[in-house]
Design brief:
Elements (H helix, E strand, L loop, with lengths): L3 E5 L3 H13 L3 E5 L2 H10 L4 E5 L7 H8 L6 E5 L4 H9 L4 E4 L4 H14 L6 E4 L2 E4 L4 E4 L2 E2 L4 H12 L5 E2 H9 L8 H13 L6 E4 L3 E4 L2
Parallel strand pairs: 1-2, 1-3, 3-4, 4-5
Antiparallel strand pairs: 6-7, 7-8, 8-9, 10-12, 11-12
Helix pairs in contact: 2-3, 6-7, 6-8
Length: 218
């Protein structure tokens, strides 16, 4: 089931970028631009998560957070404020995470996934074409038959699936699969992509993005 996310951000340009990134990976989104509109939306609709800017008109993010606590909806604060006080205040009010602008779209998606999983609202089985991944069992099948992937190939495929239709750089694959302390060549990404393409018959779906990296396309 698709998850519903409420975006509360008064900067329309930022809100639309967030919406675009979330829609690409199949989240259903609603945009509002002030605290009172957000409060009304929450009363009218059930959301799986709220992305909440702190500095919004009419009712700021902290005040809104106090009013919506009874709804028990996960909240990630999005703000330009980087002070320890603001972070602590947001978390004390019950926010599940706190992101300082500017941030990468892939990082936001990862934070959302983590919070949804914490609340048991994350899909633990991912399907793409005739491929299925069970995240709990760490199993992947092609047309119902198990496929043997190395641990890194498996993790790389999960990153591709969770960022479907988004172009990811080799550096982003390195950070998400090998970790920030990896100092080898980015060419290892190319070799693993080649292997995953072959094992899962994805030659027509894992696209090479010139001078960037790779994208998984429907």
């Amino acid at each position: 089931m698709q998850k519903k996310i409420l975006i509360v951000e008064d900067d329309i340009h930022i809100s639309q970028i967030i919406k675009m990134n979330l829609n690409i990976v199949n989240y259903i989104t609603t945009e509002v631009y002030d605290g009172l509109a957000a409060l009304e939306a929450i009363k009218q609709e059930k959301y799986d998560l709220i992305l909440l800017d702190v500095m919004i008109p009419l009712l700021d993010g902290f005040a809104l957070m106090e009013k919506i606590q009874p709804y028990c909806i996960p909240v990630i604060f999005l703000t330009a404020k980087n002070s320890v006080y603001d972070k602590v205040n947001g978390l004390k009010l019950g926010a599940d995470d706190y992101m300082v602008k500017p941030f990468e779209g892939i990082e936001l998606l990862a934070r959302i996934e983590t919070v949804l999983r914490r609340y048991g609202k994350d899909e633990r089985v991912i399907k793409f074409q005739n491929i299925q991944i069970d995240l709990d069992k760490r199993e992947i099948t092609l047309q119902g038959e198990p496929v043997e992937l190395t641990p890194k190939e498996y993790e790389l495929m999960v990153v591709l699936l969770k960022n479907k239709n988004i172009a990811l750089s080799r550096e982003q694959f390195i950070d998400n699969v090998w970790g920030g302390d990896y100092y080898g060549e980015t060419r290892t990404v190319d070799m693993h992509i080649k292997s995953v393409r072959k094992k899962l018959q994805l030659q027509d779906h894992i696209k090479t993005v010139y001078k960037v990296g790779y994208r998984l396309e429907d």
